[in-house]
């Protein structure tokens, strides 16, 4: 399991509140600032790539993993599926 390969001591976020990496989208501008703050922590993390892969494996499309906003990625994928579905229905 990928999680076992990331040594906790190497994480830049060790000891920080995990909630930092799960911003809540009540107000878009605040959400974006929260994402930037999390990404600033991840930026120089030495396990960033492994964290991202772990996020793809266990993150369920939610949170900041390896500096990537998987919540936004999942939202974009859902939007693309809705557009494709609507386009197919119209043709
Ligand atoms: S890349 Fe992952 S492990 Fe590193 S600081 Fe960011 S959330 Fe923590």
Defining key terms:
single chain, two-stranded antiparallel ribbon, mainly alpha, 91 residues, 4% strand, 2 strands, binds iron/sulfur cluster
Task: Describe what this molecule looks like in 3D.
- With 91 residues, this protein is mainly alpha-helical.
- It has one domain (2-90).
- It contains 3 helices and 2 strands, in the order H-H-E-E-H.
- It has helices at 28-42, 48-58, 70-90, and strands spanning 64-65, 68-69.
- Strands 1-2 form a two-stranded antiparallel sheet.
- The longest helix has 21 residues, at 70-90.
- The chain starts with 27 loop residues before the first helix and ends with a helix.
- The model has no long low-confidence stretch (mean pLDDT 89).
- The structure holds iron/sulfur cluster (SF4).
- Iron/sulfur cluster is lined by residues 11-13, 21, 41-42, 45, 47-48, 51, 65-67.
**What's the total helix number?**
3
Broad structural category: mainly alpha
How many angstroms separate the termini? 44 Å
Instruction: Give the strand order, joined by hyphens, for the main sheet.
Output: 1-2
The total number of structural domains is 1
If you compute it from the alpha carbons, what radius of gyration comes out, rounded to the nearest whole angstrom?
Answer: 15 Å
Number of strands: 2
């Amino acid at each position: 399991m990928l999680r076992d390969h990331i040594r906790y001591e190497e994480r830049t976020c060790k000891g920080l509140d995990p909630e930092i990496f799960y911003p809540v989208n009540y107000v878009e501008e605040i959400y974006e600032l929260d994402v930037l703050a999390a990404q600033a922590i991840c930026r120089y993390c030495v396990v960033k790539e492994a964290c991202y892969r772990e996020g793809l494996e266990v993150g369920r499309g939610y949170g900041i993993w390896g500096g990537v906003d998987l919540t936004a990625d999942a939202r974009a994928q859902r939007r693309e599926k809705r557009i494709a579905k609507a386009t197919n229905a119209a043709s």
